[in-house]
């Protein structure tokens, strides 16, 4: 699908239109939203958790200058969420993946403040 194809939207656009205005959110706000979504998704069945994680793509994208520490923490959170999403998508066990993803989001939030 090309950018000219109707229905193609950048992840940030899709996320903003899913009820969040990410252009007005700070890194700390984004990290908090990610952390809240992860802790909620952890208690959901896989078929409900996966869309919740997919909706986080717009939040974990870098959209402005930040310290290297914040960028590394954001990238770690993104990678942990991707691993978790991949396991959910494949029907693999995820018990050992939630804690690292939540921890990475917590670290991102603490550094973004």
Please name the defining characteristics of this protein.
113 residues, mainly alpha, disordered N terminus
Write the layout of secondary structure elements.
Elements (H helix, E strand, L loop, with lengths): L10 H6 L10 H15 L4 H9 L2 H4 L7 H23 L4 H18 L1
Number of strands: 0
Largest sheet: none
Helix/strand/pairing category: mainly alpha
What does the average pLDDT come to? 84
Radius of gyration, in angstroms, nearest whole number: 14 Å
**CA-CA gap between termini:** 38 Å
Unreliable spans: 1-17
User: What is the count of helical runs?
Assistant: 6
Total domain count:
1
General shape: elongated
What string, H for helix and E for strand, traces the elements in order?
HHHHHH
Give the percentage of residues in beta strands.
under 5%
User: What share of the residues lie within helices?
Assistant: 55-70%
What does this structure look like?
The chain is mostly helical and 113 residues long. The protein has one domain. The chain is built from six helices and no strands. Helix 2 packs antiparallel against helix 6, helix 3 runs antiparallel to helix 5 and helix 5 runs antiparallel to helix 6. The N terminus is likely disordered.
Quickly describe the structure:
The protein has 113 residues and is mostly helical. It contains six helices and no strands. It starts with 10 loop residues before the first helix and ends with a helix.
């Amino acid at each position: 699908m090309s950018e000219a194809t109707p229905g193609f939207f950048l992840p940030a656009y899709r996320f903003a239109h899913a009820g969040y205005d990410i252009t007005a959110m700070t890194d700390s706000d984004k990290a908090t939203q990610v952390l809240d979504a992860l802790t909620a998704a952890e208690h959901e069945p896989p078929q409900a958790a996966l869309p919740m994680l997919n909706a986080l793509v717009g939040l974990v994208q870098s959209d402005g200058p930040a310290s290297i520490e914040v960028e590394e923490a954001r990238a770690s959170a993104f990678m942990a969420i991707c691993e978790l999403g991949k396991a959910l998508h494949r029907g693999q066990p995820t018990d050992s993946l939630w804690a690292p993803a939540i921890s990475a989001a917590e670290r991102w939030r603490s550094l973004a403040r």
